[in-house]
Design brief:
alpha/beta, Rossmann fold, 5-stranded parallel β-sheet
Length: about 200
Amino acid sequence: MADFIVGLTGGIGSGKTTVANLFAELGISLVDADIIARDVVAKGSTGLIKIVEHFGADTLLADGNLDRSKLRDKIFSDDSERVWLNNLLHPMIRESMLQQCKDAQTDYVIMVVPLLFENGLDRLVDRTLVVDISPKLQQQRTISRDAVTAEQVKNIIGSQASRAEKLSKADDVIDNQGEISALKCKVLALHNFYLKLASNS
């Protein structure tokens, strides 16, 4: 069991997944909130059944899976609907993440959580790591990666903690505006640092 948990976060398009994968290449277990969030709304799951009951059958695709873009439209245009969805899914996601951390066999574990601070999940970890890029770069990367409009990106960024807030709460920060080679060096340095912290915890 991993006793030491690092919470990895950053705004949309910041490169959290890239950083997480670099830790995985060093042999560290990842617990990814996004993957767990997909699992709790998988076809036939309790989460999906409750979503359909609340939002209606048009949130389903023809194959019975969740229509994510339809759901996204509903929750980002109405704050109360987003709150309802969060109240349904967050307890399920939190329970599953903690179980996976318990089951991890590495010296420490990286918990990848896009809304680490927003959802108070930083209370579950021993240390927080923020992947940081400029808002302009964040917008460019997200638009090209997700084929979304600038307006949608602004809404998503607006629903997340501000850059200043994330940076003020972070124990560690990785600037991800440079080359991948520089990023690898930063991750390796932090990896060695976390191994020391984990051995002393």
